[in-house]
């Protein structure tokens, strides 16, 4: 079985590092990005099996990225994660689903849960 | 344009004094006095008396109207002050919520690497490694912090939502199916919406909760038999009245006394939490409404909820 290729979009370096480590421990390949800028291109997504993205980010934020990816591909699994804490954050997660994310989590999320979800969506 | 009462009063008094001054300057009073004395015509005296009486009563009327106007202006000013204060409170509450929400957001973001990296590290340590117990404590405390942020988050949200508006009429009209779906076909459901709008200070999930609790209680009271469940909504400019009635088994006076107490239930263990009506009462209390229940054993029950009507 080939390795799962994850595209992790997260502006917080510590969160990025933590998720990266967790995914790699489960034998996944991880590519990281600090925000959604220039990410949604056919070339970028060719090797990607699943996109894990934060919602609130500078430049191009999560909801926008989800929409852009969905315009290119209907099938690539997308998981949205948000820090919560704002009134509209529930709406963000709900909107992420509406815009085409396959799953949405609120931080702090258990990485095992996240890995299970990735496996479920990809395999 | 209609001039203000103050302006009209000013003109009236000014005109009266002006007229009086003019009459004095042309010695009109002396002339009238001379005239009545020489011709012995007392009707003119009476006419002057009537004019003076009209002038006095007119002045009194004006004074009364000016006084009423002053009272009105004062109470408007007080109301505006009150509104300003409320607005100030809402603004402060909003600022607090933004602060609390932002805090929870940052906190959650910080807890993510703390928890993930600690859990990963724990997995990498041998079972008897001395650092294990400390790392376990770090995880436990971080999880407590996550719980704390969740509470801060929901607290900040709760208060923002309390200034929300939900139109019950709209819900009953548009979600007819959602409401009817929770009623089995054996029951005859009748929904009467007698008003265009019925805006409450509760949010949509809260109103839905209220409706579903009342409906499920009504359904349970029919015990699977055929029966009637009626929902009726009325509203005047001040009040919204929502009644949910059933032709179910009803309640004894003893049960009726306790139904809104937390954890009080007459249902089978596992069938009810005893919290439904308690939650309804809390929600209704929060927005300054009230709830009353009439019930007769074997005949049915009627729940009446009244809310202040937001306009």
Brief digest:
The complex is a heterodimer of chains A (123) and B (311). Helix content of chain A is 41%, strand content 20%. Chain A contains five helices and five strands; from the N terminus they run βαβαβαβαβα.
* Spatial order of the strands forming the largest sheet of chain B: 2-4-5-7-6
**Beta-strand residue percentage of chain A:** 15-25%
Q: What is the share of helical residues of chain A?
A: 40-55%
Total helical elements of chain A: 5
Structural class by helix and strand composition of chain B:
alpha+beta
Order of helices and strands of chain A: EHEHEHEHEH
Helix content of chain B: 55-70%
The outline of chain B comes out as: elongated
H/E topology pattern of chain B = HHHHEHHEEHEEHHEE
Query: Roughly how many Å is the radius of gyration of chain B?
Result: 36 Å
Structural class of chain A: alpha/beta
Compute the CA-based radius of gyration of chain A: 13 Å
Q: Assembly type of the shown chains?
A: heterodimer
Instruction: Report the count of strand segments of chain A.
Output: 5
**How do the strands line up in the largest sheet of chain A?**
2-1-3-4-5
SSE order and pairing:
The complex is a heterodimer of chains A (123) and B (311).
Chain A: E1 5-9, H1 13-25, E2 29-33, H2 42-46, E3 50-54, H3 62-72, E4 78-82, H4 89-98, E5 103-106, H5 111-122
Parallel strand pairs in A: 1-2, 1-3, 3-4, 4-5
Chain B: H1 5-25, H2 28-39, H3 43-124, H4 131-161, E1 166-167, H5 168-174, H6 176-181, E2 187-193, E3 199-200, H7 204-222, E4 227-235, E5 239-246, H8 253-258, H9 276-286, E6 290-296, E7 300-308
Parallel strand pairs in B: 2-4
Antiparallel strand pairs in B: 1-3, 4-5, 5-7, 6-7
Helix pairs in contact in B: 1-3, 3-4, 7-9
